[in-house]
């Protein structure tokens, strides 16, 4: 595979407005589809913004009317902002594109990035992204004096963590010793070329996530490299490490089209 080019759109204090980056993604996407450029990964930090993928439910959005940018990627609602490394790999892949394989490659690069800083992360079946696993259920502290058997998040369809105080806040999942997401992934593929990508929490203010139901997940939370490691890590620290692993994984991938049922022998 050809070399992956990295383009830095802007980092703190030169944060990038989301719509500006989205416009640039579309421009690069068109150029990549026309083979005017090679595979390109845009790296940046955004100004604070909530973005909602196509599957976002109204019950997952901010209650206070905070604006949300609806986007054409997969997944649900999330937050982007300072202290979070965002990457948009715009790559031409064999058609029909194996979207799951592309997501797995991004996860692998970010898992390796976290490992270089001394943090063990993993995948969680059925939930995209990169995760820090919580303690076994029986070893977790009780929430509000409730055992897991009585946890309303699991048994009450109308329970809303946005209204129920800090003990249920996504940003406090580490204190509850629950599974918590370090990096989110949401992509779109158009004409065989990928768009959107990943966000890796380095040292953001994770209380921004408390206004929403991040990724539509009510029984887990969010975390950051700095929180998990107990020391300050900056986006500037992470960029070269992430670039190294994205390059290793994406450039050396064995790219194959998605298997189509019934196509064998055709």
Write the layout of secondary structure elements.
Layout: E1 5-10, H1 18-33, E2 40-44, E3 49-52, E4 68-70, E5 77-80, E6 84-90, H2 99-116, E7 122-124, E8 127-132, H3 152-155, H4 173-176, E9 180-190, E10 193-201, E11 221-222, H5 225-229, H6 235-251
Helix pairs in contact: 2-6
Catalytic activity: octanoyl-[ACP] + L-lysyl-[protein] = N(6)-octanoyl-L-lysyl-[protein] + holo-[ACP] + H(+)
Pathway: Protein modification; protein lipoylation via endogenous pathway; protein N(6)-(lipoyl)lysine from octanoyl-[acyl-carrier-protein]: step 1/2
Enzyme class: transferase
What do you see in this structure?
The protein is α/β, with parallel strands linked by helices. Helices cover 24% and strands 23% of the residues. It is built from 6 helices and 11 strands. The strands form 2 sheets. Strands 1, 2, 6, 7, 8, 9, 10 and 11 form an 8-stranded mixed sheet that branches. A 3-stranded mixed sheet has the order 4-3-5, with no helix packed on it. Strand 9 (180-190) and strand 10 (193-201) form a beta hairpin. Helix 2 crosses helix 6 (235-251). The longest helix has 18 residues, at 99-116. The model has no long low-confidence stretch (mean pLDDT 91).
